[in-house]
Amino acid sequence: MRNKFLIALLFVITFASCNTVNINKFTNNELPVSERIDYLLSIMTLDEKIGQMVQIDHKGLIVKSDVQKYFIGSVLSGGGSDPVDNMPESWANLYDNLQNYALNTRLGIPIVYGVDAVHGHNNVYGAVIFPHNIGLGSTRNPQLVEEISKITAIEVAATGIDWTFSPCIAVPQDERWGRTYEGFSEDPQLVSLLGRASIRGYQGDDLSNPLTIAATAKHYVADGGTNGGRDQGNAAISEEVLRDIHLFPYIGAVDEGVASIMASFSSWNGKKIHGNKYLLTDVLRGDLEFSGVVVSDWDALRQLPGSYENQIVEGINSGIDLVMLSNGYVEFLSLLKKAVISGKVPQERVDEAVRRILEMKYKLDLFNNPLTDRSLITSIGSKEHREVGRQAVRESLVLLKNNNNILPLNSDIKNVVVSGKSANNLGNQCGGWSIGWQGERGNDFTIGTTILDGIKNGVSKSTNVIYSRSGKEVDNSNDVAIVVIGELPYAEFEGDDKNLTLSVADIETVKELKAKGYKIVTVLISGRPMIINEVLELSDAFIAAWLPGTEGDGVADVLFGKYNPTGKLPHTWPANISSGGSSETLFPLGYGLTYEK
Ligand code: GLC
Predict the structure, then answer these.
(1) Alpha-carbon distance 409 to 405, whole Å?
(2) What is the per-residue pLDDT across 180-211, written as a single tens digit (0 to 9) for each?
(3) Sheet with 163-164, side-by-side order of all strands
(4) How far apart are CA 93 and CA 231, in angstroms?
(5) In total, how many domains does the chain have?
């Protein structure tokens, strides 16, 4: 009897000591991070480990307390997934609320929260929205790009968030792709230069600095090389082309220490990237020696073949560490647990993924500083930040035509007509990924300056600025008309376009004013080169302004000569688009005029 009691006592002591968590062994900053992670991995249950491998959109949580119940390691706000009133304070409250659930789990491992801050903290009301990357590509200015990302990091950190799914280092090869504007250029060298600068801006030289955030190089790989520019399509290209054009910017991103890489929805020669172990592991971990976190795209594993369990097994065994989900985390976790127990997903693979995720959290110093630093919130949309946004707009504009040096206009000009659907439309000038996933329309969705506002601010008090959206409300004149036309906002596959033609209404507006005798200065608001031949012919001057964001003053600064245009095309500008994608060139890569002295 006595022996049985002693054995039972020994068991209880042994079991208890196994389960006694020595907090110090994973929170003591004196200990090497690798040792702290080794200890955590040694005491984490399987549920706690697989919970770290889920990134759920906050709107996909059935109840917020599921972060605690399922040990969820990451949360995101996908495009447009904003808290109710979308104010900075609401974002910080959402973040801290979810973080506190994570901190109340057995081990208190903090969540890491990601958002698409791709041209400023573009989801949040009042944040500065900078030019989209195609405009930054026109600047060819890495210092400016680094500064923009640095400002974005501050405004993101001010809402508590730790991580942006940016920069997109796609190398768009076909302008029919709806995500062309998210890339810097068709030139991999330029993409690498600006992608590295952006990562430096977001991450600084120490991710534990509260003014820095983790960056994501995306979408790995050849997302911009699909046939016909089809979003999430198939890149039927040789490995040489894949490496020379599309992989090249990732070499620089890894060299800059990018914290994470997002896999692409697209396929390479018929195989989905999310299930391509050669690219996700052999090339990325072997050739490039990337040691950070590979995050999936939005529910992207569901695009793999077979059952959901098979999709999970293939994606994770191929090299996905963190799985981004819109919802359905309970089912996902149940299937992943089943796959690990059955051996289909090796325990070592789980531990490897969790190790990378924990490393990212330690680098961000989330164990010591998990909650929002509320002192930063006044920096959001500050005057200083907007000035940088305005400078970026100035440098992003590309002057394609300037007959008889009609530009710059004199700010003392007596009369000027301002026309076109995008002259007085903040939504159009911001483009996609601006408050809403697909962007917005009109002027009241955030704080900013329209191009019309900028023109009014840029001329003298004696100048008569006449706004006529269609050009129909003005009489004949030989005055100057500034006509702002182009694309309406879009994001991702919603922007795929086979023709890239201007709308009939846009062309009619230009024709209307030309017929009335006006000198035409056309400003194109678009996410990419478009087929502009007819309007270019009717214009005395033509500026490609891309998607400038909230600081419309920057356009007027160029129109009235406060800033001499320096922008150069980041894409070859086609004269036409054939169904096969080949085209004649209207303007070459790097083209851009400046004002004659
Ligand atoms: C989207 C995009 C990706 C984005 C992610 C989260 O589908 O492909 O660029 O970061 O989902 O919003």
Answers:
(1) 9
(2) 999 999 999 999 999 999 999 999 999 999 99
(3) 163-164, 112-115, 74-77, 54-57, 323-325
(4) 35
(5) 2
Burial class (CB in 10 A: 0-12, 13-18, 19+), 579: exposed
pLDDT tens digit string along 492-516?
Answer: 999 999 999 999 999 999 999 999 9
Q: Ligand 1, from 57, 77, 116, 265: best to mutate by most atoms within 8 Å of Cβ?
A: 116
Residue 300 alpha carbon to ligand 1 centre in Å: 10
Write down the pTM of the prediction: 0.96
- 596 occurs within a structural domain: no
What is the rounded distance in angstroms from the CA atom of residue 132 to the CA atom of residue 126? 17
Q: Is residue 457 part of a domain?
A: yes
pLDDT at 13: 52
Q: Which residue has the tokens 């009489």?
A: 475
Domain that holds residue 435: 383-587
- On whether the CB atoms of residues 229 and 577 are closer than 8 A, the answer is no
Residue 585 has pLDDT above 90, yes or no: yes
Q: Using CB atoms within 10 Å of the CB of residue 39, give its burial: 0 to 12 exposed, 13 to 18 middle, 19+ buried.
A: middle
Atom of ligand 1 nearest to the CA of 298: 11
What distances in angstroms separate CA 420 from CA 346, 476, 495, 509, 530, one per listed residue? Answer: 59, 17, 21, 7, 16
Question: pLDDT averaged over the chain?
Answer: 96
Ligand 1 contact, 78 CB (< 6 A): yes
Q: Please indicate, yes or no, whether residues 16 and 42 belong to a single structural domain of this protein.
A: yes
- Report the distance separating Cα 544 and Cα 541, nearest Å: 10
Give yes or no: 297 in active site. Answer: yes
pLDDT of residue 589: 98
Question: Which amino acid residue places its CA nearest to atom 7 of ligand 1?
Answer: 298
| Number of alpha carbons in the 13 Å side-chain half-sphere of residue 262 | 27
- To test the ligand 1 pocket, which listed residue (165, 181, 219, 221) has its Cβ within 8 A of the most ligand atoms? 165
Considering 343, 370, 397, which residue would you say is the last residue of a domain?
Answer: 370
User: Is the Cβ atom of 183 under 6 angstroms away from ligand 1?
Assistant: no
Q: Of the candidates 318, 342, 370, which is a domain's last residue?
A: 370
